[in-house]
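[Discussion] Sanity-checking designs against the backbone

I'm trying to build intuition for which residues belong where. Below is a structure token string of 137 positions. I'd appreciate it if someone posts a full sequence so I can compare it with mine line by line.
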């Protein structure tokens, strides 16, 4: 038996998306809170009332939902082709974020579309991580 099958690739893809995407999302959330505070964009916002650690933990826990929805959307591609492209990863990230926002809404206000785009970028980063060992190049 040479190599791994597409079913094994799909399993590892789901597992890594569920672990890595929330971690990257928490990093993006904390970075955006720090940069937003420096630029004065988030001043007085109720979203930044919590300390950074609590905000990062909340972002990590909430990001599991869009990560799972994104993984569900990407599994058919991995099962069929053994891989998915960066455009598909980004698009499914935005769709997964939008679906999660419908299921469990966050009070993002005017930053909702920016957060969806950021989650799409997170999924592109996760795809780059996966290409290293698991997905076919």
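Best answer:
Here's mine. Compare freely.
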């Amino acid at each position: 038996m040479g190599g791994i099958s597409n079913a094994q690739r799909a399993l590892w893809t789901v597992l890594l998306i569920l672990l890595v995407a929330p971690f990257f999302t928490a990093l993006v959330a904390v970075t955006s809170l720090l940069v937003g505070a420096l630029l004065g964009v988030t001043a007085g916002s109720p979203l930044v009332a919590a300390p950074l650690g609590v905000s990062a933990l909340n972002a990590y826990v909430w990001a599991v939902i869009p990560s799972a929805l994104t993984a569900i959307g990407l599994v058919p591609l991995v099962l069929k082709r053994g891989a998915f492209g960066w455009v598909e990863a980004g698009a499914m990230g935005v769709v997964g974020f939008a679906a999660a926002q419908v299921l469990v809404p966050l009070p993002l206000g005017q930053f909702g579309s920016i957060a969806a785009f950021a989650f799409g970028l997170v999924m592109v980063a996760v795809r780059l991580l996966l290409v290293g060992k698991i997905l076919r190049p």
